[in-house]
Structures are given as C-alpha cells and as structure tokens.
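User: I've been trying to design a sequence by hand for this structure and keep getting stuck. Would you show me what you'd pick, starting by listing the structure so we're on the same page?

Assistant: Good idea, let's start from the same input. This is the structure you sent:
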C-alpha cells in the first residue's frame, strides 16, 4: 500500500497553511483522497481541506485516521525539491515519507494518538460574496497592519473597503477590482431604499496567516455577514482550502 504524488506543491502549501494555526491533527486517508478538518485551540479558525484521489499517480491505501505533528510534517515537506516524487505510507506507528529525485530520502514521522472530536459548524447564510485578487488583498492587509492588529471589512453599495486604526494613525483601502455579489444590497437598490451596510471586524494576524499560501495571481472568495464569522476560500493547485474566521466585537 502506498501513495505517490509527483506535484508536491499543493500538499506542501496546505500543510504550511494549516500548521500556522493547528500544530497537531488527524489526517483522514479515505477512498476519495486525503481529508483534513479541524479548529484551532483558540477556536478562532476552522479549516477544511481535501486532496482528492485523482491528483495522485498512485493511491492504494486502507482508509485510516492518522494523528500527526503538522509542524514537523511541514518541516519535512519543506525539504522536497520541485522535481521530487513523494511516496507516503502508514504503519502502525509511523507516517513514512520518501522523496525520490536526484537522491532518495526517507523520513519517518511518529503517529500521535489524538481524540477525534465531532466538529459542528453552524450553517451561515452569508449576505455577500466578494471575489478579490489575492495579491491586492494581501497588500491591503499589510497596509492595515501598519496601524492596528485588527481590520474592519465593509461592503456598501458596490464598494468594498478594509479599514484599520490605532494610536499612530489610520488607513482605509477601497478595493476597486473586487467583484461583489449581494442579494440584499441589490434588493435595496431596486426598491431605491437606503443601501444596507455589511460590516465586520477580524484579527489581522489570523487573516494574514490564512491567505499567505494563496497564489498572488488567483482569486480569493470572501463570504460575509455583519458581525459574523467570515468564510475564506482559495485554490491550492487542483483543489480548494476553506477557512472560517471568527469575528471580533466592533
């Protein structure tokens, strides 16, 4: 039984992103691929990711649940060269990883016995969706971090802004190229009523960690509702990674 993957970049990026919040977790090796779902210890970020079976050159493994140190797994994956082929296997006590390129390197990561807790995230009916270029969003968050540790996201009419303030100053960035879809705002405009404002506040530290692995040339989808968690989705190679980020009190 073994798993073979020629393009290791999506797997590496996903582990790097997840391990920013969650140091230990359970990997689900299922019939359809590798799946991960967990919430960070502070219960601020929920993450969900699946690398489907179709992206592997070989996928032959019994369905199993594997508890690992994600930080250590990330360190191992960072040693992969672009041309390396990755082979993974699971024993009773270890996750085995092999990089085969100019040299063959074998790593063994001890398994961890972790409780598998059921995670029930309430379904949220978001009021707006924002498609935004990843590079533009990352730069806006950098601007916001000059003055504060949190950012306020606002949507009004067809305008999307990110604001931050602190004792040394404040900043307001209007993201012109964002594509906003909002049924409620459209409904207000049709009735010529005062446009509804969608506004919520989030931690900049968590936001920047969430989007750090997003391809600068690709889009990030933000789904928002006033004073509610935000759903953040972007592609990693052939699949998507999703986050739910808890809001802060305005």
């Amino acid at each position: 039984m073994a798993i073979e993957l020629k393009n290791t970049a999506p797997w590496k990026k996903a582990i790097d992103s997840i391990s920013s919040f969650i140091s230990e977790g359970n990997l689900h090796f299922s019939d359809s691929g590798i799946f991960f779902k967990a919430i960070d210890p502070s219960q601020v970020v929920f993450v969900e990711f699946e690398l489907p079976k179709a992206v592997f050159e070989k996928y032959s493994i019994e369905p199993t649940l594997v508890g690992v140190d994600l930080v250590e797994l990330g360190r191992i994956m960072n040693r992969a060269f672009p041309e390396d082929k990755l082979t993974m296997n699971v024993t009773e006590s270890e996750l085995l990883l092999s990089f085969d390129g100019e040299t063959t390197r074998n790593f063994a990561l001890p398994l961890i016995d972790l409780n598998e807790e059921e995670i029930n995230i309430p379904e949220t009916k978001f009021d707006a969706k924002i498609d935004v270029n990843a590079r533009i969003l990352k730069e806006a968050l950098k601007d916001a971090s000059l003055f504060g540790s949190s950012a306020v996201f606002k949507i009004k009419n067809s305008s999307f802004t990110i604001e931050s303030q602190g004792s040394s100053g404040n900043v307001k960035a209007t993201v012109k190229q964002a594509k906003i879809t909002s049924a409620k705002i459209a409904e207000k405009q049709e009735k010529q009523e005062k446009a509804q404002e969608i506004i919520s506040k989030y931690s900049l530290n968590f936001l920047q960690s969430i989007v750090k692995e997003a391809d600068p040339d690709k889009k990030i989808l933000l789904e928002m509702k006033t004073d509610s968690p935000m759903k953040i989705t972007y592609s990693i190679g052939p699949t998507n990674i999703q986050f739910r980020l808890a809001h802060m009190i305005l």
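That's my pick for every position. To get oriented when you compare it with your attempt: The first strand starts at residue 2 and ends at 5. The chain has two domains: 2-110, 128-245.
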